Amino acid sequence: MTIRTSRSLRGSIIQVVAALAVVTLTGACMPSEREVQYPPEREFDQTTAWQRLEDAAAEAIADLPDFPGFDVRTMMVTNCEQYGENGTEYVQLDLTYKFSEEVSQDQLVRETYVDLLREKWNASEYNVHRDEQRGEDPPYYSIEAQRPDGINYWYWAAGYVVFHIQSGCIKATEDGGNPPCPLPLGGVTRENDRATKFCDSIGMVYPGEEESADAIAPFEGTQPATVPFQSDGARRAAFDPSSSV
């Protein structure tokens, strides 16, 4: 007796057999048996990352003409993922500076700075891995560049113009959770510095406070408060022209 199978059935059988062969040959690489992979070694870890990001931000804006100053500073710290699960050995920092709503509408920061940063990062041979323009009146821009040390710049203009400086995955350290707060760039005031929950800001003098700093010392003789790094699990969203930070 001859048994005939349909073409689709034969195809299904072939696919199943092929899949079983792959599993047999690569069983040592199944997700449950793979060795944990770690990010590449970096030149810095969590203890010095924040200051390194501030220095990188200062380098980026140093040559921008008629710089109007930033309005808000924020910091985000998240755990790095390994095979889809959050780990605790590595973290990434995202330092963000935002221009004010009024300044964000200025062509200088929306378009001219994008062009200048693109030129600068290309000249420095940084890896410019995103360079997008969307929409019209006004157009939205998003440009990213990674430096050789792994720090990533992300400058985007949508509802607001925002500048991210990102560490990538770096080694977490036990004593990296309460660093002294670096002074914010661009004249950000104490009221608009939303990054201080991740650092020790006691004794830091903001722009405009210089005159009263010597006369008033309310924290003299006290110990710094311990405010450890926290992670809310948030990740950088894809470029969304309708977003506002």
UniProtKB/TrEMBL annotation:
Residues 222-245 are annotated as: Disordered. The lineage of its organism: Bacteria, Bacillati, Actinomycetota, Actinomycetes, Glycomycetales. This is Uncharacterized protein. It comes from Glycomyces buryatensis.
